[in-house]
Amino acid sequence: MPPVVELKSVTHAYLGDREASLAVEDLNLEIRDGEFVSLVGPSGCGKTTLLSIIAGLLPPSRGEVHVNGRPVSGPSPEVGYMLQQDYLLPWRSILGNAALGLELTGRLDEAGRKKTLELLADMGLKGTEHYYPGQLSGGMRQRVALVRTLATDPGLLLLDEPFSALDYQIKLQLEDLVAETLRRRGKTAVLVTHDLSEAIAVSTRVILLERNPGRIRRVFEIPDRIANTPPLYARDQPGFAELFHELWKEMELAGKIEGTAGKIEG
Amino acid sequence: MNKAGAENTGTAASRSEWLSSRHEEFKRAKRLRKRAVFAVQGSLLVLFFAAWETAARLGWIDRLLFSYPSKVFRQIYVNMADGSLWHHLGITLGETAAGFVLGTLLGTLLAVAIWWSPFLSAVLDPYMVVFNSMPKVALGPIFIVMFGAGFTSIVVTTLSITIIVTTLVVYNSFCGVDPNLVKVVRSFGANRRQVFFKVILPSSFPAIVSTLKVNVGMSWVGVIVGEFLVAKSGLGYLIIYGFQVFNFTLVMSSLIIIAFVATAMYQLVVYIEKVLLSRR
Q: Which InterPro entries does the record match to this protein (chain A) (predicted)?
């Protein structure tokens, strides 16, 4: 069985009027079925770029990207993408928003509608189907966004800091919900985050990137004991604090390197 | 609830009584203010016409140039009764409505076209800037030569005023749509058509509706100027004709009718806007 995600010497350059910069350089990565991988690193290390490349939203300047063994040529229903905020369409009802993906891929039939309703109920959103996004709290809206992503039944989920805009308590609850939902459904996930303790708590593997240009600096395998515990309790597991400090130290080092190698001013 | 708490806040019943009495007071104050504003507005209007009438009758202003209200309203009444007013009003209204609807529609379509093709947008940009800065009325003679002295050139004059403004406003609102909303639908594999109809157009709907309001005013400018230039009928024609034969009563009565009808049309658009946007 091929890896779910396979990046082979992927390089991406952003070309602007004033300068050209390398966001990601010669990056190789394999993600296997059922893994939950977090990408962390100082800002400007190309985390979001990498996610956009895997999603097919951004063709890389160089290198190969495969999802489920097939080269990526554009966004596909096999891959779900979740952003920092819910970005629900304010003029659509909750059900209309949740079913957006099905509608866009031409699969919105009675069964799809029913499945979406069930998913909403699973996420504790029963009864809100005919509300509008403005009537819901931030945490509820982000759960609707999760349903929207899951409704098309993607095998791979790309999560771009989906918890960063939430209050701390809601954030912890949602981390739990997302991690458990994805584990139960056997999904593969890639999470971009700034929050190191979140990365350790939800993942099976944490990849630390460095910047200028974006490259893998170090990979942390999360011990099963922590990886298999729900995120809220994983933080209390022995070994969590040590792992956190190690990651923190490495992150500090990665942030200090002010490389200019990747930049060509002009 | 303990005893001290009960004394401080009162029972639930007395509390709601207090709250509703405060609410009544608030509503009464608001009503009074509304009435006061309305009364002053009405008095100003009556005062204006009274001053005008008095000034004309006592010879403070030239009766020939400025006419006076009782004569103006008699003129309107006579024209209404003999049916000549309806003819002119109908023509002007038709031209305004055509210019207004077509201007909004074509302007929006042009905005869609340049959104669809960024290349086209870049190419057309300087032309739009020039055409937008230009006093379009100056093109009037050219339109008359092209489309003849009549309905068509008046509507085209109106369009020249409304289209570009509509295009610029609507296109700006297309570009102002949150790119993350677009990213959401793109991540589901949406093509440009789907991006447009699922996100861009509904997002910009309020902006499009608000250009309707601007275009009502613009259309009246276009139509009246157009009628000044070419028409043989219409309210603009009545003004120009009244001016030429020194019948200022006719000029004034046309002005009053225009003020009345234009306001009614504007209010209608405001109402339509309210209905269209109420479902959001």
A: AAA+_ATPase, ABC_transporter-like_ATP-bd, ABC_transporter-like_CS, ABC_transporter_ATP-bind, P-loop_NTPase
Q: Would you say residue B195 lies in a domain?
A: yes
| Distance in Å, alpha carbon of A141 to nearest chain B alpha carbon | 14
pLDDT at A39: 93
CATH code at position B250: 1.10.3720.10
Q: What is the pLDDT of residues A214-235, one digit of tens each?
A: 888 888 898 888 888 888 888 8
pLDDT of amino acid A260: 46
Paired sense of beta strands A188-192 and A36-40, if any: parallel
In this complex, the residue of B183, B188, B194 whose CB is nearest that of residue A83 is B183
Average pLDDT over residues B80-89: 90
- The answer, for A58 touching chain B at a CB cutoff of 8 Å, is no
Task: Count Cβ atoms within 10 A of the Cβ of residue B113 and give its class: 0-12 exposed, 13-18 middle, 19 or more buried.
Answer: middle
Asked, for residue A263, whether it belongs to a domain, the answer is: yes
Is A241 inside a domain boundary? yes
Judgement on whether residues B73 and B53 belong to the same structural domain of the protein: no
Average of per-residue pLDDT values in chain B? 89
Domain holding A214: CATH number? 3.40.50.300
> How large is the ipTM?
0.85
Residue A86 lies in a domain: no
Question: Which residues lie closer than 8 Å to B90 by C-beta, 6 or more apart?
Answer: none
For testing contact with chain A, the best of B178, B181, B188 (most A CBs within 10 A): B188
**Residue B62 located in a structural domain:** no
Q: How many CB pairs under 8 A join A and B?
A: 53
Give me the residues of B, 127-186, that contact A with CB < 8 A. Answer: 178, 180-181, 183-186
Is residue B128 domain-shared with residue B173, that is, in the same domain?
Answer: yes
Whether B184 and A83 lie within 8 Å, measured CB to CB: yes
CA distance B209 to B216: 11
Is A83 close to B180, i.e. CB distance below 8 A? yes
Express the helix, strand and coil content of chain B in percent, nearest 5 each: 85, 0, 15
Contact A91 B181 (CB under 8 A): no
B278 touches chain A (CB under 8 A): no
Which residues form the domain of B9? 3-57
% of chain A beyond a pLDDT of 90: 43
Across the interface, of A57, A80, A89, the residue whose CB is closest to B186 is A57
Our CA-based measurement puts residue A225 at a distance from the nearest CA of chain B, in whole angstroms, of 34
| Interchain contact, A76 vs B189, CB within 8 Å | yes
pLDDT bracket for residue B4 (50, 70, 90)? very low
Domains of chain B: total: 2
Find where tokens 């309806």 sit.
B86
List pLDDT tens digits, range B28-78: 999 999 999 999 999 999 999 999 999 999 999 888 888 899 999 998 999
Size (chain A), residues: 266
> Taking 50 as the threshold, does the pLDDT of residue B143 lie above it?
yes
CA–CA separation, A54 and A66 (whole Å): 8
* pTM exceeds 0.90: no
| Structure tokens that stand for B91 in this block | 């023509």
Structural domain for A69, as ranges: 1-78+195-266
Whether A71 is covered by a domain: the verdict is: yes
